[in-house]
Design brief:
- This protein has 144 residues and is of the alpha/beta class.
- The chain has one domain: 5'-nuclease (Rossmann fold).
- The protein has six helices and five strands, in the order βααβααβααββ.
- The chain has a five-stranded parallel beta sheet.
- It starts with a strand and ends in a 6-residue tail after the last strand.
């Protein structure tokens, strides 16, 4: 299962991003593919929060446009929302403790816990996830 971090989605939908073209190709291929793709609500929230900020973009998305993009993802047969289950809290708490997480890295631990609980691989460009030893992480934009 592919678990998607917000950075890939932001790059894919931000034409001014240096990673735009490769991220867009990856998103389009994976979202229309056969492998299950799961998007945590926190990823959706981050996409909406960041892509609609006028302080970050000259022409940010309106909330209606950004929400329409999210809806288009959810219409894809391979794509669904990833929610936490019964084991989430114990995994999340262990990651916080073992990796001495605090501040902004709490959200990374959240995505890591969701991925671990559901047996997924987190797809991201964020190197901070390397701190979670048992987490499978793939950067789909990294040159091979």
């Amino acid at each position: 299962m592919i678990v998607v971090d917000a950075n890939l989605l932001i790059y894919a939908y931000t034409a001014s991003s240096p990673e735009h073209a490769s991220a867009r190709r990856w998103v389009e291929a994976v979202f229309s593919g056969k492998d299950p793709v799961r998007i945590p609500w926190s990823t959706v929230h981050a996409f909406l929060r960041i892509t609609t900020q006028s302080s970050l973009f000259e022409k940010p998305y309106t909330i209606a446009d950004a929400a329409s993009i999210v809806e288009s993802w959810m219409e894809q047969p391979a794509v669904a929302v990833l929610e936490q289950g019964d084991r989430y809290w114990s995994i999340f708490r262990r990651l916080l403790r073992d990796s001495q997480i605090r501040g902004n890295l709490v959200m990374d631990a959240h995505l890591a816990a969701l991925s671990l609980e559901n047996g997924g691989t987190l797809f991201t460009t964020d190197k901070d996830f390397s701190r979670f030893d048992e987490l499978r992480v793939t950067n789909p934009l990294k040159s091979k």
